[in-house]
Amino acid sequence: MAVPKRKTGKSKRDMRRAANSKYEAPGYVKCPQCHEPKMPHRVCPECGFYKNKEVISVDK
């Protein structure tokens, strides 16, 4: 059975684990209709527009 010849150091172990922490949450963009921040490629929750078309009606 294969057995490691030496103990994996803390630095090597942490470098391997750090690869998963490089991802970032997507940023916000300004809605072209109401200028409120919204997630990209999604319907604006404030005005209901997506790609300059009203997709849902929002009660104001």
From TrEMBL:
A GO CC term assigned to this protein in UniProt? large ribosomal subunit
Q: Which GO terms describe its biological process?
A: translation
The protein's matches in InterPro entries, at most eight in alphabetical order, are given as: Ribosomal_bL32, Ribosomal_bL32_bact, Ribosomal_zn-bd
Keywords in UniProt for this one? Answer: Ribonucleoprotein, Ribosomal protein
Task: Note the Pfam families from the entry.
Answer: Ribosomal_L32p
Ranges for the region named Disordered are 1-21
Question: Which molecular-function annotation in GO is an example for this chain?
Answer: structural constituent of ribosome
Which residue stretches does the UniProt record annotate as biased composition, category Basic residues?
A: 1-15
Q: Which family does it belong to?
A: Belongs to the bacterial ribosomal protein bL32 family.
Protein name in UniProt: Large ribosomal subunit protein bL32
The record lists the organism as Serpentinicella alkaliphila
